Amino acid sequence: MHAKIMFTSNFEDESLIIILKGNQWWPVFDQKSKDAEKIVTEMKDSVKESDIPLFLESKKFVLLSAVTETHGTLSFENNTWVLRLLNPNLSLLQLDCQVFVHKCIKHATQMQQTINFYDRPVQLVERNRKDPIIEGKILASKKDRLSYARKQKKVEYSIGVIGLSVFVVLLIVTYPWPFRDPGNQAQMWLFTIFEKLIGSVAITALISYAQFHAFYASLHEDSIKWSIAGEPEKKAIKTLI
Question: What DSSP assignment string belongs to 128-175?
Answer without folding.
Answer: T--SEEEEEEE--SHHHHHHHHHHHTHHHHHHHHHHHHHHHHHHHHTS
